[in-house]
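Subject: Sanity check before I submit

Could someone independently write out the structure tokens for this chain? I want to compare against mine line by line before I put it in a report. The sequence has 237 residues.
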Amino acid sequence: MAGDAVTATFQVIPGAIPAAKVTFSLDATAGYTSKNGSATAAGSQTVISNTPYPNLAASFNNVAITDEADPTKGHFDRDGDSYSAQALATAGVTPGGTVTSNGASFTWPSSAVGTNDNVAGSGVLVKVSGSGAKLAFLGAEAGFDTDSITVTYTDGTTTTGSLGFPNWCCSDPHAYGASPAITTDHRNTPSGPANFGTSYQVFYNSIPLDASKTVATVTLPAKQSIHLFAVAVQPTT
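---
Independent answer below. Compare away.
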């Protein structure tokens, strides 16, 4: 009858969904016929998926480290500045190497110099496995922000903490409860190495975990000023 409402249920099965935070539009059109003729009705629904990356490195979206002979690829901050690969090497930090700080052991990004080597914001999910007292991070900021971190355990429960790092230079190196893990003595600008004698640092910080549970995934900060180079589950001591 004209004016009647009819409800229909459909199951929509998507194709392969890529790892990332992705917005989809689910569009539907229904056609119907009555004694007065045929017509159609359309509707749309926005769906946001957040499929976990297999690890932190798979979610890298920013270049923070460049070669002094080719610094223009860096964009750690809005001015195109970056960490110097040579200065990092002098500090004992090389691609794929181990960095230890405050009882945590990290693997430094193995990315080729001048390619994506950290996560800047994004709010994506990454898989992290292990049990321990803390979830530890190596990071720095091109700003002065904090943001939330959500840890999901294998049993489906969650822990939420606040994470921030000092600005990579020229600020309190212990802001937000962080501490310096790597110190270099200059940086790269788009025109080459500069600011010799100024400390450009990467910091350790952490959030507490429920040590009786096993970590499954971590939701990263969404603020673009927060850069993450490495993450590790820190054992209970």
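---
OP: Matches mine. For the report I'm noting this point. The first strand starts at residue 20 and ends at 34.
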